[in-house]
Specification:
Length: 200
Amino acid sequence: MNMNMNRYKAVLLGEAGVGKSSIVHRYVNDNFYELQESTIGAAFFKKTHRIDNENSIILEIWDTAGQERYHGLAPMYYRGAHLILVVFDVTNTNSFARAQKYINELRENLRTNNVVIAFLGNKIDMEKGREVSKLIAEGFAKQNNLLYYEISAKTGYNIEEMFNKLCNHVYLNCNENNINITNRVNILNQNIDLKNDSCC
Ligand code: GTP
Ligand code: MG
């Protein structure tokens, strides 16, 4: 079967402890660690997502470290990204404020609109401890033209569905706007056409 595979860069941003690594582990390996270690620098993951019978994409995911001392590194990861996931913890108002700051920073630093930005409220399994209402978070997302999802890395709620929607969105967005894709791999011919790492 002739299967085209394009690579897209995704990055997760957000305060330390909001669950960025847990979200990626749930999506890529379908597991969850109560004692997930804080990320140092950044971690890299890959996952293939099927678009249709002829097209799949490889999502190359950068899971950044949320600790403030790593903040200066963030632009290095989000530059050239096709998909940016800004995460907060619904049980932590500070993390919501931090996520809003990330959105403002992205608006100032990204020179293109050709990137899909999603705003994620994680840990919704802890409904009793909720400090950020869905209404408030959704309102902020709407005002800023962001896609908003409520998820739980712990239970897996909405993780797969969200990534499926976002992958399709990124694929359509990049194709409609004719955006350069990092690499194009044709499985049938095993041709690997490495372009410059330019995109968006
Ligand atoms: P840094 O790497 O320091 O930036 O943190 P992070 O955003 O990657 O957070 P991490 O995934 O390490 O999760 C922090 C803590 O929250 C861990 O103890 C996780 O087990 C817990 N956690 C993550 N997601 C969820 C969730 O959906 N629900 C609950 N209840 N706990 C979660
Ligand atoms: Mg982490």
